[in-house]
């Protein structure tokens, strides 16, 4: 991973952490999911923004119970960005990002998305 990407990722993650105290003010501004409005079912990405807002309020338990995959994704994004920037500042060389997932990796990602979607539909998110 290049130094520029590590610093960009870390900068975005740091900015999100810094503005998180004001995130609850955006809750009323959220629009309804178009897919859910048309079909009555949650879409595969339903809850991503709400998970981010719950995490910004440090309500990790609610974010994980309502929107598990997006909550984990947001936490990995923030933690990874801050770690990448910190390690780069410390002079460490970060590993290269793979350009293509293995078949097992692709199956795991697609399975996680479908399991999260099924969970969202089952819980009425």
Strand percentage lies at under 5%
Oligomer: single chain
Number of extended strands: 0
* Main β sheet profile: none
Structural class: mainly alpha
Overall shape: globular
Number of helices: 6
Radius of gyration: 17 Å
> What is the count of distinct domains?
1
| Helix content bin | 55-70%
How far apart are the first and last residues' alpha carbons, in Å?
Answer: 36 Å
H/E order of the elements? HHHHHH
- Mean pLDDT over all positions: 86
Low-confidence residue ranges = none
Structure description:
- There is one protein chain.
- Helix content is 66%, strand content 0%.
- The protein has 6 helices and no strands.
- It starts with a helix and ends with a helix.
- The mean pLDDT is 86.
Summarize the structure.
The protein has 125 residues and is mostly helical. The protein contains 6 helices and no strands. It has one domain.
Which secondary structure elements does this structure contain, and how are they paired or packed?
Elements: H1 3-19, H2 34-39, H3 48-56, H4 60-66, H5 68-89, H6 103-123
Helix pairs in contact: 1-5, 3-4, 3-5, 4-5
């Amino acid at each position: 991973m290049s130094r520029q990407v590590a610093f960009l990722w870390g900068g975005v993650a740091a900015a999100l952490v810094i503005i998180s105290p004001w995130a609850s003010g955006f809750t009323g501004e959220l629009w309804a999911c178009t897919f859910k409005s048309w079909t009555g079912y949650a879409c595969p990405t339903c809850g991503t923004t709400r998970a981010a807002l719950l995490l910004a309020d440090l309500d990790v338990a609610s974010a994980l119970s309502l929107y598990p995959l997006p909550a984990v994704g947001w936490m990995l994004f923030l933690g990874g960005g801050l770690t990448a920037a910190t390690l780069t500042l410390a002079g460490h060389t970060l590993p290269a990002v793979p350009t293509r997932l293995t078949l097992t990796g692709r199956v795991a990602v697609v399975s996680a998305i479908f399991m999260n979607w099924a969970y969202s539909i089952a819980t009425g998110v």
